[in-house]
TrEMBL record, chains A, B:
In the C-terminal section; belongs to the gamma-glutamyl phosphate reductase family. In the N-terminal section; belongs to the glutamate 5-kinase family. This is Delta-1-pyrroline-5-carboxylate synthase. It is found in: Mitochondrion matrix. Bifunctional enzyme that converts glutamate to glutamate 5-semialdehyde, an intermediate in the biosynthesis of proline, ornithine and arginine. The keyword Mitochondrion applies. InterPro entries: AceGlu_kinase-like_sf, Ald_DH/histidinol_DH, Ald_DH_C, Ald_DH_N, Aldehyde_DH_dom, Asp/Glu/Uridylate_kinase, G-glutamylP_reductase_CS, G5K_ProBA. Keywords: Amino-acid biosynthesis, ATP-binding, Kinase, Mitochondrion, Multifunctional enzyme, NADP, Nucleotide-binding, Oxidoreductase, Proline biosynthesis, Transferase. Transmembrane segments: none annotated.
Amino acid sequence: NYYQLIWSNVPFFTVPLARAHGKSFAHRSELRQAKRIVVKLGSAVVTRGDECGLALGFSHKYNVVAVLQNQGREMMIVTSGAVAFGKQRLRHEILLSQSVRQALHSGQNQLKDMSLPVLEARACAAAGQSGLMALYEAMFTQYSTCTAQILVTNLDFHDDQKRRNLNSTLHELLRMNIVPIINTNDAVVPPPEPNSNLQGVNVISIKDNDSLAARLAVEMRADLLIALSDVEGLYDSPPGSDDAKLLDTFYPGDQHSITYGTKSRVGIGGMEAKVKAALWALQGGTSVVIANGTHPKVTGHVITDIVEGKKVGTFFSEVKPAGPTVEQQTEMARSAGRTLASLEPEQRSDIICTLADLLTERKDEILSANKKDMEHAVSTGRLSPAMLKRLSLSSSKLNSLSIGLRQISVSSQDSVGRVLRRTRVANKLELEQITVPIGVLLVIFESRPDCLPQVSALAIASGNALLLKGGKEAANTNRILHELAQEALSIHGVKDAIQLVSTREEVEDLCHLEKMIDLIIPRGSSQLVRDIQRAAKSIPVLGHSEGICHVYVDHEASVDKAIKIIRDSKCDYPAACNAMETLLVHRDLLRTPLFDQIIDMLRTEHVKIHAGPKFASYLTFSPSEVKSLRTEYGDLECCIEVVDSMLEAVDHIHKYGSSHTDVIVTENEDTAEQFLQQLDSACVFWNASSRFADGYRFGLGAEVGISTARIHARGPVGLEGLLTTKWVLRGEGHTAADFSEQGSMTYLHENLPVAQVLPERRTTS
Amino acid sequence: NYYQLIWSNVPFFTVPLARAHGKSFAHRSELRQAKRIVVKLGSAVVTRGDECGLALGFSHKYNVVAVLQNQGREMMIVTSGAVAFGKQRLRHEILLSQSVRQALHSGQNQLKDMSLPVLEARACAAAGQSGLMALYEAMFTQYSTCTAQILVTNLDFHDDQKRRNLNSTLHELLRMNIVPIINTNDAVVPPPEPNSNLQGVNVISIKDNDSLAARLAVEMRADLLIALSDVEGLYDSPPGSDDAKLLDTFYPGDQHSITYGTKSRVGIGGMEAKVKAALWALQGGTSVVIANGTHPKVTGHVITDIVEGKKVGTFFSEVKPAGPTVEQQTEMARSAGRTLASLEPEQRSDIICTLADLLTERKDEILSANKKDMEHAVSTGRLSPAMLKRLSLSSSKLNSLSIGLRQISVSSQDSVGRVLRRTRVANKLELEQITVPIGVLLVIFESRPDCLPQVSALAIASGNALLLKGGKEAANTNRILHELAQEALSIHGVKDAIQLVSTREEVEDLCHLEKMIDLIIPRGSSQLVRDIQRAAKSIPVLGHSEGICHVYVDHEASVDKAIKIIRDSKCDYPAACNAMETLLVHRDLLRTPLFDQIIDMLRTEHVKIHAGPKFASYLTFSPSEVKSLRTEYGDLECCIEVVDSMLEAVDHIHKYGSSHTDVIVTENEDTAEQFLQQLDSACVFWNASSRFADGYRFGLGAEVGISTARIHARGPVGLEGLLTTKWVLRGEGHTAADFSEQGSMTYLHENLPVAQVLPERRTTS
């Protein structure tokens, strides 16, 4: 479906695998094509990390290496961890060979406390190798995948004959669909330098396997080398310092911009050595990602994430892209946004009017870009007719867009910096609460390109910086519309306040920029909203994922109004979130002409009826009974249920509704007012169609969405939902101590008048 | 530290392990004491689940069974999964024995496609047993823990001699600190009924291992049986139906309240059999928890969670507690809260005044309860002097609390139902936006019991239902204060709107009640706030985790004001979140008397000074250089940094601040206004101490906290932050279609006057 399209721009499985043949990939999104992949698992990953269990785990879900292999890729593993494995094994053997009887007789705890001799790393490696291999084999056997063990030393790469032998063996294994598991033959290398990183055991420096993996990747002309250890990736300065930033992508030319720390968890120079190995592989034509393999993750897996092109760890790329990264775009937007917020209201209004003008003046450019997108969409056949309609722009659409923008420009005049409250806290100490922009907004929208100028105008009016992430299928239209928005912004020098994010960026990655983005507004299917709510754990999301709206017809309802409202609520636009899904009918109406008229009308309109359990029990024959009273049909279908009273209707809605919009139809004002008071939904209507729950119909101008959240904005959200407040206090050297018992001042807390401004004035065209 | 105390009321490691000896535990929190534990791993857990890798995982972090064993518990595992294991093994063998050459020559994909004979379950079990055991052994060897294999049949329990043999063998193993791994000896049992649950292989019904585990647990007098499969636990009606609720605790007497489904993933009656086995074990004196072992989890582990008393799966208990569960409390609170919201404002105000009266009238009761808590705290010596001070109440504290409550009662008059906006949408179609309560609040507070009446009053004033979770050390004081709050609420029949959650409940469990709680407000240390923000993924949290406040002294500052404000901001109460942490000084001030006076004052006040990098570069000698410019000292310490201009100060604060409260000291009004405008913090002050950032000082009455979030409430939050809005539309049968091109109506969107009410009027005492 379409959602899949924007989420991961091209579905994973449709990407053809491709051998890079000595040319590394330019962008993370291309990593999906990688056919031959070397995965290097550091000692920390194999012995300590959770990713070990997950990376190599024998469960069906998580042996991702086997899964990738079964996708037709050629996977190779370079493993560490034999030393740690062997250590445990030897320790166990030593314990057993000491007098077990003695240990058993003197109590169970002694086993743990017995002192152990210091174990030699090479012996440990030898002892651990077999256990490690057995484990790998068990894990791959689950997938009917064979593994093969290869032990190498660095010398094997220097001797040409040995190198050729190794090469042809590995190629033969790959050809036979066998996963080679490669490790250094530690038992036959010279004794290592003492190094007590790993729990008191002398280990062979971790550096060895990094360079081994790099050499192997280049030798085998692998497309991708994934090097997992317990570091996140490459930072621009020593991790932990105030300014240290994890580099998403590293270009060989940028090496001077890196400051390596003098200390790190992997020892002096550990990261430098990793980078050296990575650059070496990159030069040899293999793309490299360095990432942390020891983080527990609920969904997915670091290796899968990397191969799916997600922003995990540091990606090494030879090709520096022309444009800024999304992080740079966010920084630019925030900075320009601050200037935008400090402009005069007239200037912001000015920008919006300019954009409105541009939409009509540059109509031809826009429509020709839109035509390209339409043609492409038609030729690929990926979009449904409804979606094609949403994608298409027309001269008249642009005109009404332009008119809408002018309305927003009017209401922008008194939005930012409005004084909401003034208090004289004490003599010469005055407090103001004023409206300010929220900061940086991320708006994710599906194929509708007209969303772009609307949302841009709302962001400009409210002084917010804006990141726009549109669907790939509207790429051309979005590009020109964004250019026009920037053109309008430039008249007051704030061009960068609105940024269009590249279609290559993953929505999920954007949802993780919690230090940079203040509010996410998804505009699209409820599936999109739900997925983004899930992905954006630390950033608030404004929107609604469900619209289960009810119309309750009271026994004192007017026949005409009931019929009119039910028809409009269900049939005006059944796919809308504010369409009726459940019709609640007062029991007394059941055997009345009104009820028959309702049913007749629904039949005439081809609405499929489902019966709620109570309704079904009233009928001798009945329509299909509902599976759940919480269904959002989004189509010409609805559920009918019977209630005994208005209060039962309220209870029903509280229990099964989504607090979006609910309607009562009655002529009894008391009943209506009770319903309106008691019902806890964002919109509660009396004798009006649920379809009025809409920012434009409410008179808010364009809306950024409808919120079913209970804090901040609720219901249709216009300009005001994009504002927050700040407190400004002006004094003359006042201190809290002045107000203490010994102090000379007392609090007045006198409310001062605030110039009353009606919120979001609007005139309709 | 204290936080640890409230978080998991009694630290895990201090609980002595205890044999229950035939008496099951009454409450989940007692499961921590369980010494002898049987863990039953269903086939789904062993073969499919992630928990398998985690449950048995060979990483140090996650072989939780071994970890529990090493804590001194006696762990036993009842395992399934041999069939699935054997299936894969046999499949592999069959493949290899078919012409491998042929497969290799005809391409790699054929291996996967080759058809396989149907495998017999018992043969699979026999073939899989050895592999499964090898895996368990490898996993436990990592922890230097021995395992032993026991194969049993149901008959072994019926024959007395066999049962005694089994019993003594198991006891001997436990005595030797060895973990027995028990499985049914499937190879020697009668052929199973066909059942194609498990990927086309005939399996032995999963029921067997449930009853085996129960029998074994009772036979061995285990304290706890943890039965993990792929079902969440016991539901009160078939899972998936509208009303199905997972039971947190199940009492044998409640069995009639359960409706078993006719179908479930584990086959007809699967759950019933599980429950039967569980009840059998419970009757035998073993506590039981049924839970899902196949969910991936980032932190912790289902087994650990269960043993820590967290709400995972269904806990079987013989003792039904007297009070309601926390879920029932939430339901009661929400329902009574709705009534509270529909009361007249005067009635809510009335309740608050009554509570204010009760605080003074029943002073003696309160103080004597508080005395008990104080004595207990002193005797255990767990609280620091500062915390003891916060815990203690006095007659005068109660008086001022009572005065504060009367102020809240005044402001409560115009809070709920206030009309914020009125619009004539069209002829006879009128829209109102009115304030309504948020819903159910959860307030978590540390030792300060005076928080309870304050927060209660704010909740009553705003018509919200309230769950209170206080610290254990204030249990007696909180109980009496809560009783008084309920007494006050009863005068208008809404007693249940405020609920005190038992100290036994885990904060983390409460954070997961996302369908029941609308807003969480933690009141306590920033560590508490951070932990709750992490735990409460789907519920918004109102609060701030950091307060890095700055005072910027401009080169045009007044000497007196600067000294006064810096002293007050840093020294008035250094531990407060609104205390100054970084002093920014204009460069031109460096060699002036003002600067010397500042330094002298800080020295006199014993403030330890850290130098920012730029400041340090100006000095020949320098105080210790800061590690990070983002430090919250919370003590008589601060950082001093030099900036070249007001704008650089703004940049510094944007970069290193926490957007809490920042101050400029200057006599230049233009500079000040620019600073106030440009700086993006919740509170920005000119010539006033940062300590004014406080709800009471702002004139908001009591505050529920200070928010550094950017949406909803920002800065000090009073009554208004506990309100949201709803939209009320009143029509006469209006439909959206009336306004279409063919329709007869047009939008007016005329703003109607709203009676202006000043927000939160307050008079000071």
